[in-house]
Amino acid sequence: MRSAAITELKVLIGAMLAVAVAVQAVVLPMLAAEAAASFPEVAYLRTPLTVLAVLAIVCGEAALLCIWRLLTLAGRGAFLTSRTTRWVDALILSLAAGTGMLAAITVVLAADPQTGGGGPTVGLGLMAGMFLGAAAILGVLVWRGQLLQRVRDAAKQQRRAQL
0.85 cut: is pTM over it? Predict the structure, then answer.
């Protein structure tokens, strides 16, 4: 991968991380406060839903950091190593945890009769997020299998070259 492309992707990831931190620190608490004021009958859900949303964003940030590290390895030409598979495993775990957080938000909303499941827009948004998370996990798992095969092939070639 070209060095310029890696730099551009890292700038994009940095911008995404900055936006995610701003959403965690400012936007989510503000929206939660407004929702609690507008709907006092479900104000008790403010804290648990805010915590789950922040944790879901943290999982997304962790996934972005894993991608950053994979880009760094690709830029150094050290992509076909066992270190790469560790970062791919961490990426899978962060995607799975984020998808789990979305599922937990869905359960909290669905379990409370006063929320009505958050309404159709919220429910559809959460389902879309869970489906996208599951698709991303499956895609990265397939990519991981291919990567492991390439790492094994590269190790075999190195052993043959040494003989």
Answer: yes
List the pLDDT tens digit at each of the 163 positions of the chain. Answer: 688 999 999 999 999 999 999 999 999 999 999 999 998 998 999 999 999 999 999 999 999 999 999 999 988 888 778 789 999 999 999 999 999 999 999 999 888 888 877 788 888 999 999 999 999 999 999 999 999 998 889 888 888 888 7
CB 98 within 8 A of CB 157: no
Report phi then psi at 152, rounded to 5: -65, -45
Best CA proximity match to 62, nearest among 26, 98, 105? 98
- One-letter identity of residue 23: V
Ramachandran quadrant class, 128 (left: phi over 0; alpha: psi -120 to 50; beta: rest): alpha
Region of 124 on the Ramachandran plot (φ > 0 left; ψ -120 to 50 alpha; else beta): alpha
